Amino acid sequence: MTSPARSHLLVVALALLGLTAGCGKKTETAAAPGTPALVKVRFQTDWFPQPEHGGYYQALAKGYYAAEGLDVEILPGGPNAQVMSGVATGRADLGMTNGDDVIVAAARGVPVKMVGAEMQRDPQGILFHSEHPLRSLQDLEGKTLMAGAGSTWIQVVQKKLGVKFNLLPLVGDLARFMNDKTFVQQCFVTNEPFFARQRGADVGALLIAGDSYEPYRVMFTSQKFLSEHPDVVAKFVRASVKGWVDYLTGDPAPANQLLAAKRSDLSPEFMAYSIKAMNEFQLVSGNPAKGERAGQLTPARLQKQINLLQEVGVLDKPVKVEDVATFAFIPQAPTNPLNQPTANPR
To answer: In this predicted model, what pLDDT tens digit does every residue of 71-96 receive, in sequence order?
Structure first.
């Protein structure tokens, strides 16, 4: 995942909007005689290969992209991954990011649009010791929190909910957390709790997403690519959602083997934990009681998110739902094994 400190330094990278590097006619991959050539697609992730990207790797490993006529190359990210500018300028055809980032970019004139949901809610959370549990974001009142200072959710909690807390810059380790049982820090619920427990801590995680703040994680593309290759976008979204459902409800081994080949530090135990967390927190499936499902975006939720970002002063100018998303490629509601009730995670 990207660092929880959201970078809004889009202006410099996206002053390059006139650039069309990599855009234009799609290249085709040679196929066996008598079979259609596969269309090359470059998909940019936000971090190094990990289970939180598992649905894409499952679609690749099990041939779901190939079955749609696509030759998908997954471009790994990292600490300096510039997913937004890469997609906007055509270095990648599609990418993944927090839904907020697409809304903020659109408000700055960046021609990108969401085309489907990777996750119904962002996996960022608050890591705490079980001796001092957090049951809601209001429980942060008066505490010291290590978190990304630029994170939108912090502005929401402070400005909209009126919760006051001390903020420390986020660092990429658990040292202080492990040494102070009253300490709380931002995390990904699919990640840091595993490593804290591995070190002997009894911990829990509170998902930040809720009724007040509930951003999607999304697949997105440039408006240029969208207008020139709508069929490719439709096929990519369809195969990706299928990959996600299969990864989280079926045998994840095909994707996990690809992930392990790319990162030797991904243990089977960690990958199993991440998959379990994604299911328990209903990150991909969403809440069936709310009518949510894998891949879904809704105008109502996006409008609520736009209104919230406008209210806390994040947007440079007002935007409309149609400026930030298209709903033409959202898969229709199938019988979805992900939309089953799960136990509430701690």
So the answer is: 999 999 988 888 999 999 999 999 99
Question: What CATH number has the domain bearing residue 201?
Answer: 3.40.190.10
Q: Are residues 225 and 96 in the same domain?
A: yes
**Which domain covers residue 137, as residue numbers?**
124-207
155 and 269, same domain (yes or no):
no
State whether 271 and 315 are in the same domain.
Answer: yes
Tell me the pTM. 0.87
pLDDT tens per residue, range 282-328: 999 999 999 999 999 999 999 999 999 999 999 989 999 999 999 99
3-state secondary structure the chain: CCCCCCCCCHHHHHHHCCCCCCCCCCCEECCCCCCCCEEEEEEECCCCCCHHHHHHHHHHHCCHHHHCCEEEEEECCCCCCCHHHHHHCCCCCEEEEEHHHHHHHHHCCCCEEEEEEEECCCCEEEEEECCCCCCCHHHHCCCEEEECCCCHHHHHHHHHCCCCCEEEECCCCCHHHHHCCCCEEEEECCCHHHHHHHCCCCEEEEECCCCCCCCCEEEEEEHHHHHHCHHHHHHHHHHHHHHHHHHHHCCCHHHHHHHHHHCCCCCHHHHHHHHHHHHHCCCCCCCHHHCCCCCCCCHHHHHHHHHHHHHCCCCCCCCCHHHHECCCCCCCCCCCCCCCCCCCCC
